[in-house]
Amino acid sequence: MTAEQRARSFSVHLVLIAYSLLAVGPILLVVMNSFKVRSAIFGSPLAPPDAATFSLVGYEKVFRSSHILTYYSNSLIVTLVSMALVLLFGAMAAWALTEYRFRGSTALALFLSIGIMVPIRLGSVAILNMMRSAGLNDTLTALILVYVAQGLPMSIFILSEFIQQIPRDLRDAARCDGVPETRIFFEVVAPLLRPAIATVAVFTIVPIWNDLWFPLILTSSDSTHTVTLGVQQFLGQYITDWNSVLAALSMAILPVVIIYVLLSRQLIAGLTSGAVK
Amino acid sequence: MAESVSNITAQMPRAKLAGLLLFFLGPAVVIYTLFSIYPLVATMALSTYTSDPSGARYFVGLANFETLLRDALWSKPFWNALGNNLIFFAVHMCVQNPIGIALAGLLSLPGLRLKGFYRTVMFLPTMLSVVIVGFSWNLILSPLWGVAAGALKAVGLGSLFAPWLGLESSALVTLSLISVWQFVGIPMMLIYAALLNIPDELIDAARVDGLGQFRIFFHIKLPLVLPTISLVSVLTFVANFNAFDLIYSVKGALAGPNFATDILGTFFYRTFFGNQLQLGNPTMGAAVATVMFFIILLGLCLYLFLVQRRIRRYAF
């Protein structure tokens, strides 16, 4: 490397490090200060907690005065059930659209792709009316139904692309052996979709876990709130209690960060393999 | 795709095919139609009704839209929200996309070390809930905590600090920038992916011709990823004109100070559910949602007819 190249590479790293700090700095600042006593939060906000300033008082308050564990389990149930249904029904529909020739298949594919671009949130007024008349308002079922409807278009789109890449001989060989179509899908095709399924799963989980709008309009009692809504309301009430606010924020941040660090390779592979182009 | 359809399935008896389609497509089509398409249509239908205090509904045609656009009580907040939404979108287009392109360009430089690490870290904010991001920045920018003021002072710019989120003149742009900070990962990743797809021969040829990295980027790489940039722009448009969470969590339903941060999403929420100042009005809420729908549709059509059609696609 010449001196000029080294200088250039150095300046590139300098820019990237600076931006990385800007990206994680605020998150680190919140999480770090949530473990400190109030005087240290204000006195030296940029210093990490040490033996003298370490405190869990914020977390104790959050656990005592909110239903944070209920919120967590609600979010988990809603996210996991929605994700499972989006994957199952999405893969089945993608298979039918790519594998069978029938009149109106192109129109049906177009109809299903409207949801990729048009936000379902704009139908909220009617969704609320429907859920009320079906007796489903303030239930997790209502949230799951909406999230499945929201996640299906993208999942069908991505999975169709993958199914088209599976060699046709593989399916026809099974057909010649007289294997029924449903078994071909569940036992031959579905296992081959595993890499695609991981990508679709991440795309489905993140917006559902983070959503504020539908829990806000569809759930009204503490027992059905999700983490995002529960923390939002908690923060609104305890805005002056910095220990609790920082602890509540950290408790909402940490699970997502852990999932992200575990799945980031898969997510980035999905994004960069052109699945969403 | 017709070519991929197997001959065996093409010769299947009709009844059998119908049964299979019902089994495979049924659940997805039913749930999607019931909870996505039907509510959109029903909301539009509801926007042509009005209801009296007893709850009875009357058909009023386009009167709700006339109220929304003409009546002073309704039109002032509506145009305010629409104007603010345009500023919100403009800030994203002018700040988020150039930063995203620049970061993608740096990350795709040949032989760069640690790029996996940078990518992961820079994409992290995008994964978090807007509620969390909004509150965290609210604390950081708050004059009470003094982190932002202290950081500015440390670089000698202490006099520049102001309670940006609290001032009518700067609250909207500050919130837009917080949103940019969070979502810059999306253009970065999509453009990065597009840059990686450019074949090496093309870049090598340019280098042999004596072009530096800078000119290679602007004259060869950037024109080739224009389709991705326009896709990113339309994604940004749809997301921005449907945004709600950030403003609601930082500023509440009233989108203060003095509605300076009100965008269509918060205006829709207030109209539909009401707040301290007004009662909720589902039919007017439906009218606002319908207008938002047509704004988004207009944006999508402009993209499809003006941009998408003119883009030359390069097949590598």
Question: Mind explaining what this structure looks like?
Answer:
- The complex is a heterodimer of chains A (277) and B (316).
- With 277 residues, chain A is mostly helical.
- Helix content of chain A is 77%, strand content 0%.
- Chain A has helices at residues 3-33, 38-43, 57-65, 68-99, 105-117, 124-133, 140-165, 168-176, 181-192, 194-210, 213-218, 227-237, 242-272.
- In chain A, helix 8 packs antiparallel against helix 9 (181-192).
- Chain B is mainly α and 316 residues long.
- Chain B has a two-stranded antiparallel ribbon.
- The chains are: A mainly alpha (277), B mainly alpha (316).
- Chains A and B meet through helix 1, helix 4, helix 5, helix 6 and helix 7 of A and helix 1, helix 2, helix 4, helix 5 and helix 6 of B.
Question: In terms of topology, how is this protein built?
Answer:
The complex is a heterodimer of chains A (277) and B (316).
Chain A: H1 3-33, H2 38-43, H3 57-65, H4 68-99, H5 105-117, H6 124-133, H7 140-165, H8 168-176, H9 181-192, H10 194-210, H11 213-218, H12 227-237, H13 242-272
Helix pairs in contact in A: 1-13, 3-13, 4-7, 4-10, 4-12, 5-7, 7-10, 8-9, 10-13, 12-13
Chain B: H1 7-10, H2 14-46, E1 49-51, E2 57-59, H3 63-70, H4 72-107, H5 115-127, H6 130-141, H7 147-154, H8 171-183, H9 185-196, H10 200-208, H11 213-224, H12 226-240, H13 245-251, H14 264-273, H15 282-307
Antiparallel strand pairs in B: 1-2
